[in-house]
Design a protein that fits this description.
The protein has 692 residues and is an alpha/beta fold. Among the domains are: 6-179, Flavin prenyltransferase-like (Rossmann fold, 3-Layer(aba) Sandwich), CATH 3.40.50.1950; 189-290 and 297-388, CoaB-like (Rossmann fold), CATH 3.40.50.10300. The chain contains 23 helices and 25 strands. 41% of the residues are buried. The structure holds cytidine-5'-triphosphate.
Length: 692
């Protein structure tokens, strides 16, 4: 994850400087390049030699080399770095950073830094708690710096408290999070409210509630992990900011939360409102502590703004709004009422009646309700619930994309990795291979294969692996190509293979810097024809997996290429010459008798795999039903190669799906079909039967 990242690590004079050595080691181990800068006093705690040995780069500390007079350019470092970490950061350095006091190389570099900055304070608990330090940290936050709050624990002074520098492993984790921008919510701005609100009675008393903020913080964390830019408006809670990229706004009362949320929501794509906002506040807030009298006392309350309803009222088209409902009775109907009343897109219901749900505990049991219905989830950790909620939000965004899809292209369809294995032709000019690999990567990834808009995260992952079997200096190549396409499975990190095929004996010519051209109706380049064929095939199968028979347009284009290529004279295209070449693969897919296989693509992936995150058992049952469709396709055309091919690239998936799950009869049914279609894989199918 940190491979190739350039990190400036600033070390200051704290006893925690010894931990910097481990930090350097971890960063280097992750593949990062680390440039250490030390303040003069840091050298009292750890030697530059240790750090230069670990980082493999000379440590910088002075503006000038005293001997050579060479200047250490803080400006260049500011441009070079992908991130700067100041760890440990003393109160003095934090103060200098906040105030712009550039009297050493570390602070000047900080002031020139173009990349994100993480600051890991380390100091004694009283120094940390001092308003001066806190104000300086707030100033750094307002500059957009990420403060990695110190942990509680024993300090160098032997006192216990907050001030210990965060452990190097966690600092690396925060850095990783910062670079982790891809994900289903990449590019989205999301507001999350969390925690209770405190409504002041007098300077020392308030009305509050038991909300711990854990659920909201877990959601903010998940949104950030999914690539969103998160603003977390937090009531008074005792929780650290869970992700380095989160912008946190601390508030106390409902009115402050309302103001901060309304401000943030304008620039946001969605808001998830988890805060337990006090519905009422004391009408009068005494300036001085209210004294005890012998009389009873009544506090008059007045209504607070309903943040959810007020955001619901100003919500724009395309913005999404989600809330929580905490109910004790008539949960579903009350939650539905709130959904309507507050103009929410979905509402997360948790009932205090459920054991393990609600405030302060680390688990929760929720039902997500939107216009299309209610989905009940089992009791899970709050982190897992947060993932479910974020997955639901991502799905609603995806539906919006389909609704409002403009016809302009933003990202291309395929996200291909191209590799060239040239071990069989060593000793020849190697530049051509590098250039060809780059040209192919560009051709596949940057070409506009469809008219649709593909968001970055929707691009189809695929691999084109060429094994060069023969090459001569006139530019003629003979290659095998292993091509594979896959799609992500909803609600998980797993990808399912859509197509995988080894295409042997592809001949083409290529000279360095030849332009790769492709014209569907006038094929004159076998290499680009082959690539375009697989590009359309993979896109078509991906679309078949999203909507029943949804990929016809692109599968037909692949068929069209195979038809037009009949005159090319190149191998692999000829109709009738084999039951296993490009022509027959696509001709079979598009044959009416094989339609059950194409319909299976939708049922298997969309209705089966994609629903397994909610209910693994139900998802697997759908997949078992798909086996009948596979059998039907096979019965219709027993000689067609693609049913067998399908069982081959899905083989591991089948084994995983059924090895430990499913009843004996279900397994036997599945294995019977698979063994008939593909007897050569009997070992794998036996494995399904053997387990449990
Ligand atoms: N909410 C809010 N502002 C308020 C009250 C609630 O934004 N002043 C939000 C909460 O963050 C939550 C949702 O509205 O997402 C529902 O909160 P809840 O307290 O269950 O609903 P209320 O509208 O206050 O209804 P009641 O307390 O009467 O059940």
């Amino acid at each position: 994850m940190l491979k190739g990242k350039k990190i400036v690590l600033g070390i200051t004079g704290s006893i925690a400087a010894y931990k910097a050595a481990l930090l350097v080691r971890l960063l280097v181990k992750e593949g990062a390049e680390v440039q250490v800068i030390m303040t003069p006093s840091a050298k009292e705690f750890i030697t530059p030699l240790t750090l230069s040995t670990l980082s493999g780069r000379a440590v910088l500390s002075e503006f000038f080399h005293s001997e050579s007079g060479a200047w250490n350019s803080h400006v260049e470092l500011g441009l070079w770095a992908d991130a700067m970490i100041v760890a440990p950061a003393t109160a003095a350095t934090i103060g200098k950073m906040a105030g712009g006091i550039a009297d050493n190389l570390l602070v000047t570099t900080y002031l020139s830094m173009k990349a994100p900055v993480l600051v890991a304070p380390a100091m004694d608990l009283d120094m940390y708690a001092h308003p001066s330090t806190q104000r300086n940290l707030d100033i750094l936050r307002s500059y957009g710096n990420h403060i990695i709050e110190p942990a509680e624990g024993e300090l160098a002074s032997h006192l216990k408290g907050k001030g210990r520098m965060e452990e190097p492993q966690n600092i690396v984790e925060r850095l990783r999070e910062l670079f982790f921008v891809k994900g289903p919510l990449a590019g989205k701005k999301i507001l999350v409210t969390a925690g209770p609100t405190y409504e002041k009675i007098d300077p020392v008393r308030f009305i509050g509630n038991y909300s711990s903020g854990k659920m909201g913080f877990a959601i903010a964390h998940e949104c950030a992990r999914a690539g969103a830019e998160v603003t977390l408006v937090a009531g008074p809670v005792a929780l650290p900011t869970p992700h380095a990229s989160i912008k946190r706004v601390d508030v106390e009362s409902a009115r402050q939360m309302h103001a901060a949320s309304s401000e943030a929501f304008r620039a946001c794509d969605a808001a998830i409102l988890c805060a337990a906002v006090a519905d009422y506040r004391p009408s009068q807030q005494a300036d001085k502590k209210i004294k005890r009298t012998d009389e009873n006392m009544t506090i008059e309350l007045e209504a607070n703004p309903d943040i959810a309803a007020s955001l619901g009222a100003v919500k724009r088209e395309g913005q999404l709004l989600a809330g929580f409902a905490l109910e004790t009775n008539d949960a579903l109907s009350n939650a539905r009422l709130k959904l309507k009343k507050k103009n929410l897109d979905f509402i997360v219901l948790n009932s205090l009646e459920d054991k393990g749900a609600g405030f302060a505990v680390d688990t929760n049991k929720v039902t997500i309700i939107d216009d299309s219905g209610a989905t009940e989830y089992p009791l899970k950790s709050k982190a897992a619930v947060a993932r479910d909620i974020v997955a639901h939000l991502a799905r609603l965004f995806m539906m919006l994309v389909l609704l409002f899809a403009p016809l302009t292209i933003e990202a291309q369809e395929l996200n291909a990795t191209v590799s060239l294995n040239t071990s069989k032709v060593q000793g020849t000019n190697t530049e051509v291979f590098t250039v060809l690999k780059d040209a192919l990567t560009e051709f596949i990834n940057n070409r506009r294969w469809t008219e649709y808009t593909y968001e970055e995260y929707e691009r189809i992952a695929c691999n084109f692996t060429f094994v060069v079997d023969g090459y001569s200096d006139d530019g003629s190549f003979t290659c095998s190509l292993m091509v594979q396409g896959s799609r992500p499975v909803f609600g998980s990190t797993y990808s399912s293979t859509l197509f995988k095929y080894e295409d042997k004996g592809i001949k083409f010519t290529y000279q360095p810097y030849d332009r790769l051209e492709f014209n569907e109706d006038n094929l004159d380049n076998n290499l680009t024809a082959v690539i375009a064929f697989y590009a359309y095939l993979i896109i078509g199968l991906d679309m078949d997996s999203m909507g029943e028979l949804g990929g016809s347009e692109f599968l037909n284009r692949a068929l069209n290429i195979a038809n037009n290529a009949q005159n090319l004279g190149d191998s692999g295209w000829r109709a009738g010459s084999s039951n296993n070449n490009r022509y027959t693969v696509i001709d079979d897919y598009m044959n009416g008798a094989m339609e059950p296989l194409r319909r299976l693509y939708y049922k298997y992936h969309r209705l089966g795999l994609d629903t397994m995150f909610k209910d693994a058992e139900a998802g697997r049952k759908v997949i078992t039903e798909c086996m009948t469709m596979l059998q039907e396709a096979y019965n219709n055309r027993p000689l067609a190669y693609i049913t067998k091919l399908f069982t081959e690239y899905k083989q591991d998936e089948f084994v995983n799906l059924y090895s430990f799950e499913g009843g004996a009869a279900e397994k036997q049914g599945v294995v019977k079909i698979l063994s008939e279609i593909n007897p050569s894989q009997s070992d794998a199918w036996d494995r399904i039967l053997r387990t449990r």
